[in-house]
Design brief:
Blueprint (H helix, E strand, L loop, with lengths): L13 H6 L18 H11 L1 H10 L5 H17 L5 H34 L12
Helix pairs in contact: 2-3, 2-4
The structure holds zinc ion.
Zinc ion binds next to helix 1.
Length: about 130
């Protein structure tokens, strides 16, 4: 996996290969769409279109481009797997899981409180409230 990233004069990036154009040294796609991951670009192109992806990459600052591409690739794959909901489907599954686990945590904490108070013998609980 130690293929040279800087000197790719004769192997175009996945985007340029897909679009059948010359990959120049300043190609905005090249750092994020290596030739060994052809489906990554194909998915993103199918969902968003190459010109939109290029526009988005030019709009964000260079240090955000990798995250941007990863997000686009994730969204494109999710949309291809689930044309109706896309990544919203995954989000709602995870949200349901979170609220289920939160309920479980609350129940467990309540059990723990009951257990602790049955052991402790009420060192701090005085039913008189504040007497001072
Ligand atoms: Zn390229």
């Amino acid at each position: 996996m130690a293929s040279s990233h800087s000197n790719y004069t004769n192997s175009p990036c996945a985007a340029c290969k897909f679009l059948r154009r010359r990959c120049t040294s300043g190609c905005v796609f090249a750092p994020y769409f290596p030739p060994d991951e052809p489906t990554k670009f194909a998915n993103v192109h199918r969902i968003f279109g190459a010109s939109n992806v290029s526009k988005i990459l030019h709009e964000v600052s260079p240090h955000q481009r990798e995250d941007t591409v990863n997000s686009l690739a994730y969204e494109a794959e999710a949309r291809l797997n689930d044309p109706v909901y896309g990544c919203v489907g995954a989000i709602s599954v995870l949200q349901r899981q979170v609220s289920k686990l939160q309920r479980e945590l609350e129940e467990t904490n309540a059990d723990l409180m009951r257990y602790a108070s049955s052991l402790g013998g009420g060192t701090t609980s005085s039913y008189g409230g504040q007497r001072d």
